[in-house]
Amino acid sequence: MMPRMNGYEVCLHLKNDNELKSIPIIFITALTQLEEITKAFAVGGVDYITKPIRKEELWARVSTHLTIAKQKKELTQGKEKIEELYAEFLGTQGALKEANFKLKGLASTDPLTSLYNRRHFFEVARNDSKLAQENQKSATLIMIDIDFFKTYNDHYGQQKGDKCLKEVAICLKKIFMKSSDHLARYGGEEFIAMLVNTDLQQSEHLISTLKNAIEALAVPHEKSGIADHLTLSIGAVTTTPNLENSLQQAIKKADEALYRAKESGRNRWVIISA
Fold first, then answer.
1. Contact 191, 169 (CB under 8 A)
2. For the segment 178-191, what is each residue's pLDDT rounded down to a tens digit?
3. Is 258 helix (H, G, I), strand (E, B) or coil?
4. N or C: less crowded end of the chain, CB within 10 Å?
5. Which of 98, 189, 244, 256 is labelled catalytic?
6. Active-site residue 189, yes or no?
């Protein structure tokens, strides 16, 4: 019961101040009615002492509420620390996922061409072959070889050779661009492609388009032996995978078709249906 501003209003002002609102407030008053006590707690008080004041009681209550306030502060700080650590954990977890994703990418791709490497190609090709078998869909396996690449490397140097491999890889990605098409650097100057749900006619069209795209690059090759520019020899097999016609058999047949293309003079393609 103070002039201009009573104790309830003082308490409300303190509780509305961000810097002061955490301070515990104990009411000391001569008022003893239940409604007055209830109002003191309603505006933010933590305790209520009626006059006359007994020092021991006052000290005990102040000590209790200071202890409670300290513990509350420690809990709040602990919660904030936990939230901070959890945020760091989430950040670290995200970084680990990203790192694992990158590592997985590095483990599955050829560093020079960014195509699948041979090991990863076999993983996805086996799955594709199994799906094609289950759904009775045709699939085409293509083996691609750069003609006289060793003489190209010897004549122009490894740097030019690497650039040549990259250009061929770019052509491959532009032509075999369906989500179900899988490309890989098979080794050295050889590439391999697995095309699911692609019949003989579609495969012939894609292979012809690839050959024309390589011709259009007009990459000089003075040591080719068959042309003055870079060329490809291609062997392919189109089949409907089954228990008797496995991925390994398809690769073998495509390799045989590639051998026939080379034996026939290179710079050409041979495709068979099995």
1. yes
2. 877 899 999 899 99
3. helix
4. N
5. 189
6. yes
